[in-house]
Structure prediction request, 541 residues.
Amino acid sequence: MNEKAWSSVKEEIEATRDTTIADYFASDPKRADRFTIEAAGWTLDFSKNRLSPRLFDMLVNLAAASGVREEAAKMFSGEKINRTENRAVLHTALRNCKPGAQVFVDGEDVMPRVRAVLDRMAAFSDAVRSGKWRGFTGKRIRNVVNIGIGGSDLGPAMATAALAHFSKRSIRCFFVSNVDATHLAETLRSLKPAETLFIVASKTFTTLETMTNARSAREWLVKGLGSEEAVSRHFAAVSTNAAEVSSFGIDTANMFEFWDWVGGRYSLPSAIGLSLMISIGPANFRRMLRGYWRMDEHFRKAPLARNMPVVLALLGILYSNGWGAESYAVLPYDQYLARFPAYLQQLDMESNGKGVDREGRKTTCSTGPIEWGEPGTNGQHAFYQLIHQGTRLIPCDFIGFCRSHNPVGDHHDKLCANLFAQTAALAFGKSAAQCRAEGVPEELVPFKTFEGNRPTNTLLAEELTPATLGALIALYEHKIFVQGVIWNIYSFDQWGVQLGKVLAGDVLPALSSAEPPAPGRFDQSTDALVRRYREARGLKV
Ligand code: G6Q
Prediction:
């Protein structure tokens, strides 16, 4: 981190250590307004933080001194900022809605190809949705099964659930990711092959889990329909690897391309979103892209102090590096966003879970936090206890909407009353004096007292729509980017995923070979586990 700017931040944190969120509100009747930003259909109220106006200025200065603006400009312009993989990072090009926009990678404008793939996806989606695209036996497609994992699964799975209100209800989407056959088997149990379309989504088309599931799905289909020829009517692919797609047996006419400058966890607005597009239709998909783009434009242009992703990033750094918080919770008060915390987990933890800086040295500051969460109000009856009264500091992002897609009775008011009340309770707590005034017996006062001073951000939009969802995703993408810049780490590679993959490849043959592996083939513990597994399966040990 920029030492000079960070040491000013640290000094101010120390100077204000004993000032509480309640103190800040008491001394500033305009605080809620001062610390509220609007962008791309979202309002961010960050007033309930341990944040003096002076500390805020210093944090903004940290962003400026770390070169956030300059680094963002490099990303948007297609510079190869993913240095360890020598790649551009251009998920923003996928949703660039500026008419006539050009974005260059290695001297080539990528926008015509981006638009062409979107158009092909739209034509395909429309054909499936309208019933023009028929299965091998002439039946309409009723089920779409996306087979992918990680970045090729979490985005479309999250967004398809999030936008179910906008979906064509006669087509159901399923997402199979785990190599555990249970995932595929339980998904296929109720489906008819003649009405099922598989989308094999894999950037590399070599991922063990995806290819294993895809092959088993293919067998299920061919067995069910009695012909290899059925494959071309029931399989589409999303990949950067045409050769592997065609050697799998999928007609490349049914392949939707994306490019190495789209990172897996940033790939929802690419062809990886095909299952989502089939579900919600091309027009809604484009609305989502527009929402992303509005947040991209806000991030590019708004001053740092009024820049929503920058502010969220700085607050995260305040608690991670200034207060030692290990994690943060994301709490969507919307059932449609049930998978959003899981999606963000990958986005954040795979991007910034790095212990080496851009110069290849061990980082001296802590980096990516642990992200977790559940939809409200469920979490309130489960883990909020620890957030309110536990010994750990857990900053939270509360996410809510003013209108529900399911306006039944007063459910929505009750939902949002809980959201607002939780952030107030966390910030202001309940003092011992209040407890006594309410007649709480003296021996129970310590247990019923809430310290408060627990920081939260509140993100509020009018309604969950494709556009507000797109903007919300872009908000977190850029937040994570800004943190990576300030921590001086590379956010767009994921080398940590590799070692386990390679070792799994080593262990696999030892689990089924006729002869047992020689003792000492692996480490002592792995040797013993393999032996136990083989024994249980009646293999020679
Ligand atoms: C994401 C990661 C990772 C990736 C999966 C699937 O940023 O790179 O989660 O998306 O490993 O990879 P394929 O799309 O190549 O199958």
About this structure: The chain has 23 helices and 13 strands.
